[in-house]
Amino acid sequence: MRLQEVREIAKTWGVNTGARRTKQDIIRDIQVHEGYEPCFRTKDSCESDCLWKKDCTNGR
C-alpha cells in the first residue's frame, strides 16, 4: 500500500501523519486504534488478519 493511502486511513483514525513519520510508525499507530498489537514488520510470521498483513509479510 502506498504511503498516501496509509495517510488517508490514518486520518480517519486521528493518527498523526506528520512529514517526519515513517510508514511503519503510522501503520503501527493505526494498528493500536484497530485493536491490534503494533507489530508491523516486527515478526517473522503472523496469525493476525489485520489490514496490513499483506504489506507486512510481503516485505520480508
Note the main attributes of this structure.
single chain; 60 residues; mainly alpha; 3 helices; globular
How does this model look, in words?
The relative contact order is 0.16. The chain has three helices and no strands. The longest helix has 12 residues, at 23-34. It has one domain. It has helices at residues 3-13, 23-34, 53-58. Helix content is 48%, strand content 0%. The model has no long low-confidence stretch (mean pLDDT 90).
In this structure, how is the largest beta sheet organized?
none
Strand content: under 5%
Mean pLDDT: 90
Number of helices: 3
Alpha carbon gap, first and last residue:
15 Å
- Strand elements, count: 0
Number of domains: 1
| Dominant shape | globular
- Gyration radius from CA atoms, angstroms: 11 Å
Tell me roughly what share of residues is in helical segments: 40-55%
Q: Which regions are unreliable across 5 or more consecutive residues at pLDDT < 50?
A: none
- Report the order of strands and helices: HHH
Structural class, from secondary structure content? mainly alpha
